[in-house]
Design goal:
Layout: E1 5-6, E2 15-16, E3 20-22, H1 30-38, E4 42-44, H2 59-75, H3 79-83, H4 89-105
Parallel strand pairs: 3-4
Antiparallel strand pairs: 1-2
Organism: Methylobacterium gossipiicola
Region (Disordered): 1-62
Keywords: Membrane, Transmembrane, Transmembrane helix
Length: 106
């Protein structure tokens, strides 16, 4: 996502498009895969047992998804982040940054 800025009409920062999106087997429907491919996003989703295997499944990229899920789980230990008491996005981002710092120092 480092060089994928998409110009926006009007105000606001440019939107970034991911190269690939990871999901679990619950998102393995053909329509979800088709929509992602239409937007030029590679789906990294394992197929269900009753579906044919996808030849372009990237196991290494799927393993990275687990790291992100574990990090979010550790962040949710902090009640203020899990329930989002902050009304403003900037304040919530500050709390997430503080939580990340506390996890990094621990």
């Amino acid at each position: 996502m480092d060089k994928g800025a998409v110009p926006r009409s009007g105000r606001g920062r440019p939107r970034l498009r991911p190269r690939r999106t990871a999901g679990d087997r619950g998102y393995s429907s053909p329509s979800a895969r088709r929509r992602l491919r239409q937007r030029r996003i590679a789906p990294v989703i394992p197929t269900r047992k009753d579906q044919p295997r996808q030849p372009d499944f990237d196991k290494a990229a799927y393993r990275e998804r687990n790291k992100v899920e574990r990090l979010i789980g550790r962040l949710k230990q902090y009640r203020r982040i899990a329930t989002r008491y902050e009304k403003r996005a900037a304040n919530y981002l500050a709390m997430v940054t503080l939580g990340m710092t506390m996890l990094w120092l621990a």
